[in-house]
Amino acid sequence: MARTSFKLGRSSNPAMSKEDLNKLVEKKAYELYEKRGRKPGHSMNDWLEAERIIKGKFSK
């Protein structure tokens, strides 16, 4: 499978693969799930919030 680069603003790593970005989002989404007390039913909200947080960190 071809590796695709994903450029995210100014950071120490100017190009990040989509796989790497998804791993960071996945980790943050799980942290949000744990912070909520591991209550099911909010996985989509956790994922979208994690995407917003991770992309915000790299777009500055």
Describe this entry's structure for a reader.
This protein has helices at residues 18-35, 43-58, and strands spanning 5-7, 15-17. With 60 residues, the chain is mainly α. It is built from two helices and two strands, in the order ββαα. The model is unreliable at 1-12 (pLDDT under 50). It has one domain (17-58). Strands 1-2 form a two-stranded antiparallel sheet. Helices cover 57% and strands 10% of the residues.
The radius of gyration over CA amounts to 13 Å
Class by SSE composition: mainly alpha
Low-confidence stretches: 1-12
Q: Count of helices?
A: 2
Principal-axis shape equals elongated
Strand order, largest beta sheet: 1-2
Strand content: 5-15%
Query: What's the helical proportion of residues?
Result: 55-70%
Mean pLDDT: 83
| Oligomer classification | single chain
Overall number of strands: 2
Alpha carbon gap, first and last residue: 30 Å
Describe the largest sheet: 2 strands, antiparallel
Number of domains: 1
H and E order: EEHH
Summarize the structure.
The chain is mainly α and 60 residues long. It has helices at 18-35, 43-58, and strands spanning 5-7, 15-17.
Features of the shown structure:
single chain; 60 residues; mainly alpha; two-stranded antiparallel ribbon; 2 strands; elongated; disordered N terminus
